[in-house]
Input
Amino acid sequence: MNVRKLAMSSVFAALMCLTGMLIHWAPALIPFSILPVFVYLSGLILGAEYGAMAMLVYLVLGLFGLPVFASAPFGGLGYILKPTFGFLLGYVAAAYAVGRIYGEGSLWRAIAGVFSGLIILYLFGLSYLYVILHWVLHQGTSMVGVLTIGFVPLLFMGDLIKAGIAVWVGQEVVRRRQNALDR
Output
C-alpha cells in the first residue's frame, strides 16, 4: 500500500465532499457541478485503484449521512432513490477507468482515459436515471426523455470543457511530479 497515494486519496475525497457541499448552481434535476473534474483528476493523478477508492470514500461518507452530495437531502441512504444517484456510482467506475487507461502515459492516453470516464459516467448516470424515473417514480419516460434531462443539458453545461480541464491539469501535475522525482 502506497502511503502517499493513500493520503492523496483522502485529499481527493475531501475535495469531493467540499465541492459537493458548495456547488449548487443550476436548478435542474441534474445539478451543474465541477465534481466530474475531480473524478477525472483522481484517476489521472492517483491511478485506477486509489482514484476509485477516493470516489468510494466520498460515496460512503455521503451514504452515511454527511451532507456532501450536490442536491437535497445532501446525504443519507435515502439518496439511493434519487434519480441522480447513478452519476455518483459512475464516479467510482469513471475514476477507475481513467486511471487504468492513462497509466501515467501520454497526452493521448489522458484524453482517451478522460473521454472513456465521461462515457462511463453517462452510462451509469443515464441508466440509473431511467430506472428510477420509470420503475420507481412511475413516470412515463423514454430514453429520448432521459437524454433530454440528463445528457443534453450537461453536455452543453461544459462536460467536454471539464474533461479538457482535467486532462490539462492532470497531465501537468503528473509531469511536475515526475520532474520532482527525477531530481
The longest helix spans residues 152-182.
